[in-house]
Amino acid sequence: TTNDKDVVKVLQDVVNHSSIDLGDGNNVLNIGGTLESQGGQYGTVDNSTITAGADNDTVYINRQVTNGSTINLGDGDNDLTVNAAVTKSTITTGDGKDLLWLVGVSDGTKVSTGAGDDIIHLGKRDADAPTDFAASVNVGSKGSVIDGGDGLDILYYHGAQLHDGASVNNLTTANIELIQIDGTQGGVNAGQRNQFNLTLSDLTQSGDTLDTVFINSNVADLNGYKLNTIDLGGNNKVYNYNGMNNVKPNLGEFSLAEQNVQAKDPTGETHTYNVYKATAADGHIETVYIQDTFFVI
User: pTM of the full predicted structure?
Assistant: First the structure.
């Protein structure tokens, strides 16, 4: 397309080495539907390429991105929604304040948001209930990486409909300052927690310039039990929430350095944290501030 504001609607799948080049300008691309009219059987991007130039692009993909696909939206304040899994693919959004909604990231997928204050959501985007997350997500397997680049970057794993025992497995991040895990007492019905697995190797990727990460949650305790778990030790097990008193934490390379510390997160909000530290292979100290609303193993 030309260097202007283009609106492109694709009603079928994008497959078989197809290529869409939006060029410069504030472009809009909808594949298989729109954010306001979701659903249907079409909207897959398979082994294909989507490219945009400079300026602010908005892209909605109704189904999965898979099989070696590449999405490169260039510099600008870009808005990307993929309302199904992203597997074996690459997403790049360039410099600028980018907003991404991705249901899942796995099988060697690389996500890079470039410089700027970026926000990445793990969950299904809903135009009427933008924080509704109605799917269990398992991400980060087989070498997948989410890299926020320079700037204040926030990764959200959240929603009002977290499935019982939903988990984020071995999420590998680089240059993510804050991880926010939200929801409303997910896991109660089945007696399980929502679990976020994050080991030292997941936090020490090549190109990562950070040595401190904050993890917050708005999920309150239930009858004295913490409903979300951070797994620092690679335990890879979802525990029953009402049997956690019998669980002995295995923190892997991490150790508990401080408890009940009042500290400001990267957005300036003050919370109470437990602080965990580990020594990386290159000798630097990796520090994780975990809000006291979590059970940590």
Answer: 0.89
